[in-house]
Amino acid sequence: MKSVPARLLFCVTLLACGLAALPARAQEGPLENTAPAGTTPEDIIKRFAAKETEFSKARDQYTYRQDVKVETLDGETVDGQYHEVFDVMFDDKGHRIENVVFAPASSLTKIFMSQEDFEDIRHRLPFVLTTEDLPEYNILYVGQQKEDELECYVFDIAPKKIEGKKRYFQGRVWVDNHDFQIVKTYGKTVPDIRQKHGDQENLFPKFTTWRQQIDGQYWFPVYTKADDELHFKMEDVHIKEVVKYEDYKRFGAKSTILYQGKEIPKGEKPPEQKPDEKKPQK
Could you write out the three-class secondary structure of the chain? Predict the structure, then answer.
């Protein structure tokens, strides 16, 4: 998000994903600093990263609706709002597309949405940690905690180093000890960006994302919220944001052809049987 100072003397770039403060969506138990039974933190990390890899591929086969609302506040009064609703779907050729279904004119005056905002909304708020991502992060086991009826392992995550302009997640994840999948995320995208010279800034708020089991197999992000105050050089900006992910539906199904236990590449036919491969003639 980009800030708009009152006198328009400067153009300050802000990235802010604040999410509306709502009652906690899960009942949390105390964090217990106990070692996992019958396994190791390293094994848990490998197992849930493998599951996250599967989930990432599976989610790409689903359509869903994403509802995004960003607000700035003056005290308790909302003084600006950005709202967009779009469907993530497939065209008739199977290409993944977005269809905007609701997008009134933004009334934000202190800030406006930047490209980084849109990228975060689509890719980083629903944080996924795959096996391929593991080498980029330091992951620390901190204990076990109950989220509603779920018994969870808890890990703190931070990037080992910042590479170029690449963005990362830093915070905490809760991993269900039965399905070995992330069910809750709390943290922020990093790094915050402040130019050494000039007034441009990219600041990122803390957010929480909850997941629910949608298809009986994978845990999908369903709700993200943040309520944070971003401290810019020009002014502090109180931002709230709510992101809802709704109406997940699986798009089609992948089918494979097997011949003698091996998959036949798409577009090819299985070889014809030779006479001695056919059933004996009567």
Answer: CEECCCCCCCCEECCCCCCCCCCCCCCECCCECCCCCCCCHHHHHHHHHHHHHHHHHHHCCEEEEEEEEEEEEECCEEEEEEEEEEEEEECCCCCEEEEEEECCCCCCCCEECCHHHHHHHHHHCCCCCCHHHHHHEEEEEEEEEEECCEEEEEEEEEECCCCCCCCEEEEEEEEECCCCCEEEEEEEEECCEECCCCCCEECCCCEEEEEEECCCCCEEEEEEEEEEEEECCCCEEEEEEEEEEEEEEECCCCCCEEECCEEECCCCCCCCCCHHHCCCCC
**What are the structure tokens assigned to 115, written together?**
């490209």
C-alpha closest to that of 158 among 174, 143, 139: 139
Q: Return the structure tokens found at 132.
A: 């391929």
**Tens-level pLDDT at each residue, the chain (282 residues):** 656 543 222 222 332 333 333 334 568 999 999 999 999 999 999 999 999 999 999 999 999 999 999 999 999 999 999 999 999 999 888 899 999 999 999 999 988 787 888 888 888 899 999 999 999 999 999 999 999 999 999 999 999 999 988 889 999 999 999 999 999 999 999 988 787 766 778 888 899 999 999 988 999 999 999 999 988 888 999 999 999 999 999 987 443 444 444 555 655 655 554 444 444 444
Q: Compute the chain's Rg from CA coordinates.
A: 23
Residue 189 burial by Cβ neighbours in a 10 Å radius (0-12, 13-18, 19+): buried
Angstrom distance (rounded) from CA 182 to CA 238: 29
Neighbours of 136 (CB within 10 A): 16
